[in-house]
Design a protein that fits this description.
heterodimer; A: 293 residues; Rossmann fold; five-stranded parallel sheet; two-stranded antiparallel ribbon; 49% helix; B: 484 residues; alpha/beta; 4 domains; six-stranded mixed sheet; 8 strands; disordered N terminus
Amino acid sequence: MGSDATGRTTLFDSVDDVVTRLGDVGYLASNAVATTVFLADRLGKPLLVEGPAGVGKTELARAVAEATDAGLVRLQCYEGIDEARALYEWNHAKQLLRIQASQGQDWDATRDDVFSEEFLLTRPLLTAIRRDEPTVLLVDETDKADVEVEGLLLEVLGDFQVTVPELGTITATQKPFTLLTSNATRELSEALKRRCLFLHLDFPDAELERRIVASRVPQLGEALAEELVRIIGVLRGLELRKAPSVSETIDWARTLVALGLDTLDDEAVRQSLGVVLKHRADLVKASSELRLN
Amino acid sequence: MTATTPDRGLPAHLVDFVQALRRHQVDVGPGETVDAAAVMAEIDLLRREQLREGLAAALLRRSGQRQTFDALFELWWPLGQGAALGEVALPYSEDGSVDIDALRDLLAELLVDGDTAALSELARAVVDGLGTLGAGRGPGSGGSGGQGRDGAQGPPSGFSSYQALNSVKPETLLARVLAELRGRRQADAADSPFAEEVARRETRARIAEFRRMVQGETTRRGSEIRGREAAARTGVRRQAEQTDFLSAGADTLADLRRRVAPLGRHLATRLAARRRRAHRGPIDMRRTLRRSMSTGGVPVNLVHRRPRPGRPELVLLCDVSGSVAGFSHFTMMLVQALREQFSRIRIFCFVDGCVEVTDLFTPGADLANILTEVHSRRGLVAWSGHSDYGRAFERFADRWPDAVTDRSALLVLGDARTNHQDPALGVLRAVVARARHAHWLNPEPQRQWGTGDSAAIEYGRVMPMHECRTAAQLAGVVGGLLPV
């Protein structure tokens, strides 16, 4: 861990450092991933990761947190998430109890009392900003949230400060390393994208994928892993509704190990292809195009 | 090459690059340019791949832009100048010309191994040795292997990937590579059709990759002669979403197909959101007044009517004649993606007859199959096989008079080229009058409407017509028009 010109602590020393340290915690980073993670850290900008499901977007945040001994704070977005769920909320029930318990106290004292830290429920965004330790903030599936939440994210991610009217402005002592993920079900607003570095995380190349399989499912033989990755590559070349992702490759490898198969012959593929292709139509198409029947 | 870089420094070169991106419809703001400069300050500039990823992270905002970015990156931050040959060298025969057979042996070997790095070096060597046009060494005239590489005969006037690939003919190696791979497989798996098919597809992909490498290298070498501006104008493909449907090449079409699927999903989410927002109907006066009794007759709380039950109907009339084939294909993909959003959707296709094909669009059906199926339906072509809008509309109104009702939205897709037949405006007008909404999507540029046999202007008076040339436009128009 070093520090940059302005004295802010940085997490990584070089791109190669990113690769090694993420590799140590079991995340094999491609050149693109390593470079953007390094830059996001150095430039202090949030990193927006977009890509198909199952290529390791969320996993990346976890790996960065683990590699840098930082705490991971996760905000899972969903339709209808609002400020109270993302930023902070006052604990109304507790405030009421407090007011009832302090019968006779004058109003000013009570008011100062019920709007204090004790009654504040911090939600992920505020938690991340208030933490003193190194933090990785993961905003997961940003595209699921409504447009209004994007405005909130803009404000928070812009200068990492939040204003709670009753408490004043809270500024991050240490900018968290921020990672936003998106499945691109809708376009995020230009303004939000502009604040972030952009990484399109795609399926890895064959070499990297083989290494991923080898590190995740070491019981699988090397030759078999290579065969597996080749077939996955071909499957991705077909026009399927849902092309198999890295997570499917790993699932498949695990299935083969569990079934105790040591060669990937037609019968084995026929039996286990359902692990890789989740749609019935895809299964039918792959079987017929690859002459499995 | 326009060697302006040294005089004006790296920042100016970066700005140059950004402007080239903008010329290719990648919107890069000044803020991103500043970010990119910050990236360059942080990164080891000697590591080219890191620079590429770093700049992409700072400058790009959508994944579809990556291809354009990569192509321009190759031109503005080239790998090197001149031949830039690595360890893989071309085999030369006795008389100094390239030994094509030995070269094909080498290529086959690399394809079997799938050694990408060596393949890309070979691609470079092939362009240098076989792709040179003009004063340099053509494939026939031959260079003197090794020495005198950069031409005692003067600099080449250009490079041609066509010429290079034509002498190597990588496609014809497929059978050979497959035989080799078959030999390597374990004996028991050797005759499995599945393994064979996987190997075939993989090899085909590798050969295509090799072709792309040769083409990329040709662009790079060419840009040294013609200047990178010129190379960027002709050598860099447009983003798939910006490509004209009617002029898209085969690989752009494949690219587009991959992009349209998520487009459909985008539209579906947008529609769902719009529907949620519109879930309240107009104000219900009676219930508002009754409720106002509790507030002393002041209507504090407004009561809205319940939304109308039932989802809208969509009727689609698609021209599937040859002239608009690319376009109708994509509209149908979108339609299929939107199917679940509409409780009732009816799809009709026409050339000079008209058929209903709704039953073909089952969830998960393969679109290529659907299209072949559509074309084999009886009644689609009634007469000549050239599109005849008037006759098709007449047939539609005649055969399915109940298809369009006051609850349905009618979308007509086609270029309105009637082959000088009667456009049957009256028939269409009657149908439009019945529909709640009616729109026409035309894949031709607006300036061509009304030229030649196009009846676009006339039809445009009957129902609003929208230009819909690219996937981006199509998504915009369809998203804006679809009834909630």
